[in-house]
Amino acid sequence: MPIWQTAPQSLWSVRRRQSRVTRSLPASGGQSLGNAAGSRNRRIPRDRCAHACDSNGRNLTILKQTRPTRRPADPRNRPPLALHVFELQGGPKQQNSVASDVPISLNSARIGLGGRVSEISNVSAPAYEGKRQSANPAVVALTLAGAILTAVTKAAKRIAARMGWRRKKTLSERLGYGSDARFLIVHADDLGIARSVNSAFIDGLAAGLINSGSVMVPCPWFSEIAALSRSHPGADIGLHLTLTSEKVKKRWASVASPTQVPSLVDQDGCLLERWTPENSNCALEIEIELRAQIERAYASGLLPTHLDSHQFRLQHSGAHLFAVYLKLAREYHLPILVSREWFSRFPYLRTSINRHDIVLDRIIMIRGDVTPENWAQFYRRALESLPPGVTQVLVHPGHDDEELRDFFGGVSAWGAAWRERDLNFFTSDEFRTLLAEQNIQLVTWREIADRLASRRRFLIWTWHRQMGQR
Question: Are 95 and 136 in contact (CB under 8 A)?
């Protein structure tokens, strides 16, 4: 009788090729031999496995593969039987002998994996009888530890997905673009404070490089921007919500009646020059004033595309002010200016917004310590090292003329000369060339909101279609 038809009373454990933990095999062959037997989860009958020793005394386990279930049309082309031969480390009576992963060939036999077996000689089955060998406690412990670790890892991944701990997509990825796409909003702040500032913004729009801006409704030249919005409905203009009036010669009053917001105005009815922590406690009055600014904008025919805040007052002054800001934005269905890089400094921003809110990836704004000689170099380095995502660069364009110099009263920071330098760089051929070289695309708040709304509608339609097909 051929040796592979000799059924042993016990098979020793065979290590899987994927270095998995060994398992003991009963004499009946009922346990799966997995990949070590050349197939996955296949039961090996008794007549297709054998234990033997070669003439050199090596312990071998021979697993005989079955032929494919689909037989060829020509019986002569039927593939031969194949033998898998494994050398066991340890004697037959040694507990939990482990097989080597690499099949070996017997010196006294012509055996090839997947090939025809011509003969096997000098191979005899050992005379071993005894009870089935027990598992090694160390192996069992490793098996349980691996299973527990796998289960804990999967559970942690599920919890992280539910809690939002996985890597957040950039805004450009939410828009449907690749993870390496870079978008830029060139946003002009403080529109409406002077005609010189409005004129500079119009010049930037004409050049096609300053593509967004926000207007301060209480300021004296707000009506000029409102007229621009009516004549150019595609212009990307938002509201620069304002709670203060800086130390300038021309200050502005509150939009709401001073009797409604007494803690936000001085004795002249103008907004306060400085913001103090005590003012942040008047959430109701703040909401009244901000709502009045939004309503005046709509009444003038200006349809804002977004809301931001003068001096980041509503974003950086506490959770209660941000709650008012967010409440008005959702009530009027407008996106707000929030940057992901602020989350570490102001944790309430992360907890207040939801997955439908627009969150920019970063904000770029020039610092007050940058000298005029290094002005263009600052912006050039910022754009050359711009990470993927949607970035907004906050600029303050203006013409360095008599009106603006008189308006700021000789203040250098964000003054007339400052604004002239911003205008010169962001309307220059150097900036246009830099965008092309760095493959940075300009985008507006209007385009972002429209794109996200379109993708949301598409996903909802796709979900309903899939549910209907079930």
Answer: yes
**Amino acid identity, position 430:** E
Length of the chain: 470
Tell me the per-residue pLDDT of 348-385, one tens digit each, with 9 for 90 and over.
999 999 888 999 999 999 988 899 999 999 999 999 99
**CB 125, CB 8: distance < 8 Å:** yes
Strand-pairing partners, residue 83, are: 64
Q: Are residue 141 and residue 242 in the same domain, yes or no? A: no
Asked whether residue 29 falls in the same domain as residue 79, the answer is yes
Phi, psi (degrees; rounded to nearest 5) at 397: -75, 155
What is the token pair recorded at 370?
Answer: 């940058």
Q: Are residues 292 and 319 in the same domain?
A: yes
Domain count, the chain: 3
94 lies in which domain range? Answer: 1-129
pLDDT tens digits for range 132-175: 455 678 888 888 888 888 888 888 877 766 665 555 677 878 87
What's the CA gap between 112 and 103, in Å, rounded?
A: 9
Strand partners, 309: 241
Would you say residue 470 lies in a domain?
Answer: no
Are residues 227 and 372 part of one domain?
A: yes
Q: What is the pTM of this model?
A: 0.64
The CB density around residue 285, as the number of other CB atoms within 10 Å, is 19
Residues 69 and 177 in one domain: no
Residues 162 and 176 in one domain: no
**How many CB atoms neighbour CB 249 within 10 A?**
8
Residue 34: count of CB within 10 angstroms of its CB? 17
- pLDDT of residue 208 exceeding 90, the answer is yes
Do 99 and 201 belong together in one domain?
no
Cβ neighbours around 244 below 10 Å, total: 17
How far apart are alpha carbons 199 and 393 in whole angstroms? 19
Helix (H) or strand (E) holding 327: helix 319-331
